[in-house]
Amino acid sequence: MLILEAQNLQKTYRSRRQVFTAVADVSLKLAAGEVLAFLGPNGAGKTTTIKMIAGLILPDSGWVMVAGRNPHQDVRALRAIGAVLEGNRNLYWRLTPIENLEYFGVLRGLSRRVAQQHSRDLIERFELGDKRQTLVQNLSRGMQQKLAIAVALMHDPQLLLLDEPTLGLDVEATESVKRLIREIAAEGRAILLTTHQLDIAEELSNRVAVINQGEIVVEEPTAELIRQFSDSAYLIQLEQPLDTLRASKITALGATVELQQITIRDPEILYSALEILRPLPIVTMGRQQANLTDIFLSFVRKP
Amino acid sequence: MLSLFLAEFKRSFVQLRRYSSELIGGVVGTTIIFYGLFLSTQYIAGPGFQFGTRLDSIIVGYVLWALMLFIMGDIAGGLQQESRTGTLEQLFLSPYSASTVFLLRAIASLILNLTINLGILLLIMALTGSRLAFPPTLLPPLLAVLLGAYGIAFAMGALALTLKQVQQVLSVFQFGLIFLFTVPVESWTGSARFLGWLLPMAPGAGLLRGVMAQGAALDWGILAVALLNGAVYFLAGVALFGWAERRMKRLGKLGGY
Ligand SMILES: Nc1ncnc2c1ncn2[C@@H]1O[C@H](COP(=O)(O)OP(=O)(O)O)[C@@H](O)[C@H]1O
Ligand SMILES: [Mg+2]
């Protein structure tokens, strides 16, 4: 089931004499249970896009549908959206976790009784039980982030928007936030998370959309994207730089030679190339394992 | 709606109780400033000087002014603080409209604010020996003043939403407000009298001074003017706030970019 659909979103910020297009053209689709990682360098337009989806920033053109409703026109769409926005922790610092959960639950349209029930459940599930009476300002950053996610889930939204959910967290907190995100997706919620940390995207997402300068440059299932890039190339490392005769023969086949390193993009020519190389000593030979970092850089660095 | 009101009440009460030292500081500070003014005026004017009902009028104006500051701090100051801590945008994700949330919030803390300001009033009365009356007829003009106060607070909230930094504007504005609560619009005549009716909160404050300090009966004609004045300022403030919200959604600065 399609939970989120955004079509041709565009946003240009205009301030005194300055005109800046933060989002040029972004379209996204997200189904229940899916995690889409929205990946891009700083200033690429990730936060602006997320806020347009949440109804907090009005797009100049394009539209958003969440659970079949437009959040800019129909407040009922907001019941389907939970959001943890970037930077701050979206919580009242002078209240305890339980007070925050109950307050935001009611704010999001729950009755008091249901809000109390949900906050008890979430406290337990997010392992915040022994901190239930601690003021938020005295919680660790990791705890605050977990609580912020719990708050965003109080009204049981179908879509969860997470803007840089692991930014500034230590390793342990990052792990536990990652585990929670997986669990939440497994419940059948759609999750859109932005990050500039590639490992996070690689581990958590079903699909990756890379955004650069306000435009989506590639959107693929995460595994697919990694495979596409991994499949294509074999890397052969020789002990010595290749002599010119062999180098020209190999280049003629369609491979690339750089001193003692040969890259073969077309698997068909692998054995012909090996024939030419015989009997030179080979140090290593293998398929190039791409990770998201390489892929990301190859898209973002394109002129 | 009732659930939200109760949740807002609990939220402001808990925060107030937890930080009661700030609250006590506010009450004591407000009282001491007035008492200082009182003593220095007495010193300058000499020991034979009698304030009479003038003192009582001034006290009513001063306490109304303090109440206005609390309300403004709640809405405009609260907005600014929430944009800093990041809760502001969450409020705009609520299915209740932002003006509903802020209005319920302000009404919820009104009960607390009224109690606090009654405390200030009683303290000042005890210190200065003033005798004010509390007839039930003070309620309608108080309502008129409150409507105006909320209108102004929402307008300042709109400013806070737009500028994010309103501390300086607020503190200059505060001293402009003291004028509104002390101008004796009730004694103005001719076209000045008409002008006095247009000033925010002034007609209601004038009635309150009459009822509480001079023991006057309520003038129903002026009360109608005061209520109309309050309603107009209230609606204008809320409209301005809605406009600021839409503008910030367009500029992408709702939460403080
Ligand atoms: N309200 C705003 N007014 C003007 N420029 C803005 C505003 N918000 C963001 N920007 C600019 O737009 C660009 C994209 O911002 P953002 O969406 O926050 O990027 P990201 O989240 O990918 O880092 C940045 O260069 C930022 O400086
Ligand atoms: Mg961002």
UniProtKB/TrEMBL annotation, chain A:
Keywords: ATP-binding, Nucleotide-binding, Transport. Signal peptide: none annotated. Residues 4-238 form the ABC transporter domain. The keyword Transport applies. GO terms for molecular function: ATP binding; ATP hydrolysis activity. This is ABC transporter ATP-binding protein. It comes from Pegethrix bostrychoides GSE-TBD4-15B.
TrEMBL record, chain B:
The chain crosses the membrane at residues 21-45, 57-79, 100-126, 138-163, 175-200, 220-244. One of its GO terms (cellular component) is membrane. It is a multi-pass membrane protein. The keyword 4Fe-4S does not apply. Keywords: Membrane, Transmembrane, Transmembrane helix. GO terms for molecular function: ABC-type transporter activity. Pfam families: ABC2_membrane. Residues 5-212 form the ABC-2 type transporter transmembrane domain. This is ABC transporter permease. It comes from Pegethrix bostrychoides GSE-TBD4-15B.
